[in-house]
Design goal:
The chain is α+β, with helices and mostly antiparallel strands. The protein folds into 2 domains: 5-110, Ubiquitin-like (UB roll); 113-247, Alpha-helical ferredoxin (Fumarate Reductase Iron-sulfur Protein, Chain B, domain 2, Orthogonal Bundle). The protein has 8 helices and 7 strands, in the order ββαβββββααααααα.
Length: 251
């Protein structure tokens, strides 16, 4: 094992407005290393294969166990979590790039405001005002709770947004991640109070109609969330809501 190394090609960008470029690094191999471990090793001694001392790469991370979603990046052409990307399972040289769906702040660090703004647009919360005791909330049937739990696994990592061909700088498509959250909150007995508001948000410009049904989202989701099932369900719900609006029905 002595002398074995890991080769990485990292996309660098010094500022949001500067042009991207690449730098190559080579670090000592250790068993069971993940991509973040490689980045931390480079951060400790940021010297390229040419022997040049450079600024250490910048990236986002937090939990290091595929829960927070912060460390998303494009690894060997595929958007995924860098904490769960094991070196032994990757082809070398390992190519690291930022997700281009979002504006790049620096190097591998991106601004995911687009996704969080979409969550605001579809009211991805249950609005209960006041600090007084409201008592126990309504109970969900166990079968419904089980599939709702699968939707709640979303880390807001942005991988599905990166994989979706309809989410880009020329489109205002809300993206697959907020769509699944609409289904989650509308399924909740209390969240259902704002069901129509969320559906109306999806029926507007950049909403559900902009989905091209490529199904890249469900294939790339690190949590295996059934996003396309949610999209199919929301197509039905928005159609019903459209007829309600047309006929002026409250039922």
């Amino acid at each position: 094992m002595s002398g074995k190394t890991i080769k990485l090609i990292i996309s660098r960008q010094d500022s949001p407005d500067s042009a991207p470029y690449t730098q190559e690094f080579e670090i000592p191999y250790r068993p069971n290393m993940n991509v973040i471990g490689c980045l931390m090793e480079i951060q400790r001694n940021p010297v390229t294969v040419k022997g040049e001392k450079v600024a250490p790469p910048t990236w986002d991370m937090n939990c290091l166990e595929e829960v927070c979603g912060a460390c998303s990046m494009v690894i060997n052409g595929k958007p995924r979590q860098s904490c769960s990307a094991l070196v032994d399972q990757l082809e070398q040289p390992i190519r690291l790039e930022p997700m281009r769906t979002f504006p790049v702040n620096r190097d591998l660090q991106v601004d995911r405001s687009r996704m969080f703004d979409s969550l605001k647009r579809i009211k991805a919360w249950i609005p209960i005002d006041g600090t007084y005791d409201l008592g126990p909330g309504p109970r969900m049937p166990e079968k419904k709770r089980q599939w709702a739990y699968e939707l709640s696994k979303c880390m807001t990592c942005g991988v599905c947004m990166e994989a979706c061909p309809n989410v880009n700088d020329k489109s205002n498509f809300i993206g697959p991640q907020p769509l699944s959250q609409v289904r989650l909150f509308n399924a909740h007995p209390t969240g259902e109070m704002n069901k129509e508001e969320r559906l109306e948000a999806l029926m507007g410009d950049g909403g559900l109609a902009n989905c091209g049904n490529s199904q890249n989202c469900v294939q790339s989701c690190p949590k295996g969330i059934p996003i396309t099932t949610s999209i199919a369900s929301l197509n039905r719900d928005t159609t019903i809501q459209m007829f309600k609006n047309f006929f002026g029905s409250d039922k």
